[in-house]
Structure formats: structure tokens, C-alpha cells
Amino acid sequence: AKPVGPPSPPENFTATSGDSFVLLTWSPPASNGGEEIISYRIYRGESESNLSLLVELLPSVCSYNDTTVKNGKTYFYRITSLNSHYESSPSHVISTTPSTPPPLNNQSSHEPKNEKNYAFFFILGAMAAFSIATTYLFLKDRKKREGLP
């Protein structure tokens, strides 16, 4: 049996902040240390040197929306991955400051305010439709192969 070691930290850890939220995203670690990853831990603080555990998440999850933040305050985050024996060394620390969107001047008030959100939900919808379609095709194909009704 291979000796088990600590996993590497999650990759591509990024933060996107908006009005009273910080959306964190990451990718699985390059190495699991010889055992499957059992969870991710996100640490948060108001200074880089003082971060405490915010949440522990299942390994199938690669994003977390922190809605307990206050606008205008800077938050620091880092993330670790865990296998059943070890916690990885921490990722790099990232910082972000959630803020209210700037007020629009009167000229542009007739334009939609949520263009970005629409695009985001459109992409989400397209992805959901695609995965439903592929699941359906897969099941249909399987029925054919196994001679099911």
C-alpha cells in the first residue's frame, strides 16, 4: 500500500464579490495525497494573519457563496483540502471587498440593471438543459442496449 500523505491545496481559488456576498470558487487539488478528498475547509478573516474556519464542505462542491459579509469591509479567505488523515497546506490568501452597486445616473435608468445576472442565469439554464438532455440520451441508449421497454 502506498503511504498516505497530505493532499495539495485546491487550485484556482478565486473570489468574486458583489452586493453583500462573496462567491468563492476553486478546482480540486492536483494531488489527493494517496486517498480520496473528504472535504474542503474555507477560512475567513478581516486580516490576512487572522483567519478562522468559516465552513467545511463536501468534496463534490467547488464553490461557496458567503452571504454573511458586510459591504465596504475587506475579507481575506484561504482554502484547504482534506483526506481522511491530513489537511493540506493552505492555498494562497485572497482578499475582496463586497460593495453596493454604484447608483445609476438618470440617463441610463431605462436600461436593464441586471444584464450580467441575465447572462449568468442564461448560461446556467443552458448548462442545466444540456445535462438533462445528455442524461436522457444516455438512459434511452442504455434501454436500447439492454432491450428494456
Describe this structure in words.
With 149 residues, this protein is of the alpha+beta class. The protein folds into 2 domains: 11-100, Immunoglobulin-like (Sandwich); 114-146. It has 1 helix and 7 strands. The strands form 2 sheets. It has a 4-stranded antiparallel beta sheet, with no helix packed on it. The mean pLDDT is 84.
Strand order of the largest sheet: 4-3-6-7
Low-pLDDT stretches = none
Give me the CATH architecture of the largest domain, please. Answer: Sandwich
Strand-and-helix sequence, N→C? EEEEEEEH
Question: What share of residues are in beta strands?
Answer: 25-35%
Distance between the termini: 45 Å
CATH class of the largest domain: Mainly Beta
CATH superfamily of the largest domain: Immunoglobulins
Main beta-sheet strand count, sense and barrel state: 4 strands, antiparallel
* Oligomer class: single chain
Structural features:
149 residues, alpha+beta, Immunoglobulin-like, 2 domains, four-stranded antiparallel sheet, 32% strand
Q: What can be said about this structure in brief?
A:
The chain is α+β, with helices and mostly antiparallel strands and 149 residues long. 21% of the residues lie in helices and 32% in strands.
